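Regression test attached.
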Amino acid sequence: MEKKNMTIHLKIWRQKDARSKGKLVPYTVENVNPDMSFLELLDVLNEQLINKDEEPVEFDNDCREGICGMCGLVIQGTAHGPNPGTTTCELRMREFEDGETITVEPWRAKAFPVIKDLVVDRSAFDRVMAKGGYITVRTGGVPEASAILVEKENADLAMDYAACIGCGACVAACPNASAALFVAAKVSHLSLMPQGQPEAKRRVERMSVQMDEEQFGACSNHGECEAVCPKEIPITAIARMRREYWKAIVT
Amino acid sequence: MKLDAKVPAGSLAEKWDRHRFEMKVVNPVNKRKFNLIVVGTGLAGASAAASLGELGYNVKNFCIQDSARRAHSIGAQGGINAAKNYQNDGDSIWRLFYDTIKGGDYRAREANVYRLAQVSNNIIDQCVAQGVPFAREYGGLFANRSFGGALVSRTFYARGQTGQQLLLGAYSALMAQVDAGTVEMFPRHEMLDLVLVDGKARGIVTRNLETGAYEAHTADAVILATGGYGTAYYLSTLAINSNASAIWRAHKKGAFFGNPCFVQIHPTCIPRSGDYQSKLTLMSESLRNDGRVWVPKQNDDKRLPNEIPEEDRDYYLERKYPTFGNMVPRDVASRNAKDVCDEGRGVGETGLAVYLDFKTAIEKFGHDTIEEKYGNLFEMYKLITDENAYKVPMRIYPAVHYTMGGLWVDYNLMSTVPGLHVLGEANFSDHGANRLGASALMQGLSDGYFVIPYTIGNYLAGTELKKVTTEDEEFKNSVEEMVQRDQKLLSIKGGKTVKEFHRDIGNLLWNHVGMARDEKGLKHAIEEIPKLREEFWQNVRVAGSAETLNKNLEFAGRVADYMELGELMARDALERRESCGGHFREESQTEEGEALRDDNNFTHVAAWEFKEMGKWELHQEQLVFENVTPSQRSYK
């Protein structure tokens, strides 16, 4: 079966810096192999732009295998594009039609200001994590690993939540730009492990405060976050975080 | 200059203990007077920065990504080794040590490798305490698996995302220190130069990748944990931003480069599909535990894999290596894949692939078990190739994955530049000529959590360090030089893009300094690379300006370095006229086509000193084997 190359039209958000106004700019790329990844399409476009003496489109990306969380574009209005459970870098051009026009925009949220074109500042996530997204342990001053038993079910469930890659799609998709799923994934992961118990109260309280300070919105159960999450982190994480939070403030 | 590895005296098992006692210790009150720079936030960098901050040092930690959590350690899928012997299958520190030395084809330092095996157990304890969700069994204890080249099940894993979970553990420790105020983070900062004052490493110059600002940072010691240099090959399993520039610029300031030709080509990657390809995706080699590798017996067999009956299939690894079968070490598996493809028995559109077949495993263990073990890998394969590997065999081909070479360091992880320490993949140390599966994570965390926190104190307490500021000439000159370098790159405005040059140098390296090397090819590369380098500086076309976020400029600086490093890789490969581990010289093989070492002439680390562009002086660190006897590796 012969794979047919495609023509793809793009409308890409161009913005010089945080202070400038941005706009959608049209481009066309011919001869697109359907096995090409979406970011490779942008690579090809950028080579064309460089050769025409135009500035290439800036976009964040790194591992290009769906695990580092660095890439993230709103494609046709959906964070990480049309395929569920995938990051932008994993998206292949075979998901699009020959001749289709694709709109590409950055994450949009107050807490994620645009740096340039499609690149945004997600440092708010690091600041939230610094408030408790960890178990406080000293290097070396820890018990023998097999002294800590974890039920298989809990270990597996914790892993489901720990799979979060911190890309920020949940924030980008949320009508309130809430970071609830991101924070809840970490809170839930650690709350399922016996090691995470001593700090549970302090963790959820401090992370919640910081989340508000970073101007993320409140969660009102839209569920958009779960729908776009490339790692399919279940929204039950948020329920779990709420329980942790109530436990913390009433005890 | 004579290389001194500073290996402590005493029996192998006592060396590290004894050394820890004999090293100088910085008084707790004085620790806060020392400023340390850590470049890189992968397993080695993040664990080092967190542990040093916790000890009380002032730490500045730099990374090129937008967050420390994204370093490419995160891509490691399979697992991490430790000598816990939880499976009661006869593992021990000695066995892990022995396997690692042997797997590295006797080109690593005994003392370092033994220490690595010793602290492997502490690493697991540490990660578990941090909440890393390792796979568990129903009793609540650990599930372990056997991994490429090991006869015991010593690999701990967290689904197919072990690197991610360990990195997030180290990142969380780092964030705790950021909160405590001991570590200051500098994301989106790229190290451009190492600054020496009185011959000691006293700081770095960086470019703020967001604003374009060039900045100088002073310190009492500098720690590089910036990963390997596999991206020199253009296509590799590394992240797009992984690069060699930090270690390369340090090399040009006096740090010797150890064994640059030792590159690991990973056998189980998804084959490339077209010219636009920007990277290759690795499939964890844990897949080889249950997958069977084969190609058709006949050349150019165009039948679909499921139409090829058993008698027409050649399970060549099982045939040639009955003991290890599909589990032979990476270099052996890779070379065999290349051989069958060179014979014309390769599969897929390009003929550059072999099959990895799960049919037998699915029949034996059931679809569900295989899905539980490898589900995410099968999904990834489907995403990329649009094929269902439960039904059709996967197609795999080797790709550049890891560099065993790196900056030369002594037992204390210090380079030949006083004060410059190098951790993780960035150094040359523990894997010899070939790294075993699930050992990279182990080494990164060993260096960062359990070695550097001790050895850095020894350096600081025993060294006179005068006060330096960014106003000193050395810093100002370096900043000016880096500004000029970027301006030069931007001003050429030639006819060929950075990417095209990257592809050219990558092709040269892959074709001549790749899976199999010979004198003719290496000499050709040594002749061609300087020409390409010259062309680059005459004809490269770099977009935009230096005053803003400009990834094209970042890449130009990195590709310029590959044009220099590539030459050294080829020179080292030419000089080492033996085959060992991942370094296969066509001229040195057994009758059966296996790598043939030349212990009389090459039981040494080749450490290269940079003199001027295109000129190096070779130094040798002789390797002494007192505890194991080098034997011809055999996986039959």
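Expected vs. actual: identical. The two ends of chain A are 65 Å apart (CA to CA).
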